[in-house]
């Protein structure tokens, strides 16, 4: 079934030229996740392989409105960047083994699945916003900044909801809504970072280039929160 991830990455990359092919990449990635979910009997949200594959699908899903909406900017650079980002994480998933271990009791709750799914949707939207900002800085049209703002705003809403769901899950799992582990600390840093740049953009201070860089920095912090903390630091979260 892992060949579907390769197909998905190929379609994402070809989607730089034809937007319907981008949708094909999403369908192939979603088909892989569905197969994994059926085999495991649960959502595939545990371990680097499954989370990277889920992240790739989340990127494809969250990019669709920005690629196919009537007011979407006709930017080949944005399509190329979104496709490259989604393809990258699909291929990275292949570097890790696909485990079929049963969930520990602490993870067998709706709140865990909701927390993780919303977090990855938020990460994906931060990624889409970063692509929009990078293309703008490289000479793209100003509408890409509006795209970036919408992506960050919706991603911020998803991430805030994810933190609430994570707190409820933490209460059921450990008897407390918050643990000061590295993952929780960087979750707070990411939320504050997104809050700051959204406020800056709303107030109109700092100029267009600073707003574009703000979206890129927010995604960089999101990547460190997801991958950096999991790889470099000991935490209650593995991935």
Using the alpha-carbon principal axes, give the shape: globular
Mean pLDDT: 90
The total of beta strands comes to 0
Low-confidence stretches: none
SSE order = HHHHHHHH
Protein name: Cytochrome c biogenesis protein ResC
Domain Cytochrome c assembly protein: 57-233
Membrane topology: Multi-pass membrane protein
Keywords: Cytochrome c-type biogenesis, Membrane, Transmembrane, Transmembrane helix
Q: Would you give an account of this structure?
A:
This protein is mainly α and 239 residues long. The protein folds into two domains: 1-103, no CATH class; 109-239. It contains eight helices and no strands. The two termini are 22 Å apart. The mean pLDDT is 90. It comes from Geotalea uraniireducens. Residues 57-233 form the Cytochrome c assembly protein domain. The chain crosses the membrane at residues 21-39, 51-69, 81-100, 120-139, 151-173, 185-203, 210-233. Its main location: membrane.
What's the SSE blueprint?
Blueprint: H1 3-14, H2 19-40, H3 48-68, H4 76-93, H5 110-137, H6 143-174, H7 182-203, H8 207-232
Helix pairs in contact: 1-2, 1-4, 2-3, 2-4, 3-4, 3-5, 4-5, 5-6, 5-8, 6-7, 6-8, 7-8
Key words describing this protein structure:
membrane, transmembrane, 2 domains, Cyt_c_biogenesis_CcsA/CcmC, Cyt_c_assembly, about 240 residues, mainly alpha, Cytochrome c biogenesis protein ResC, single chain
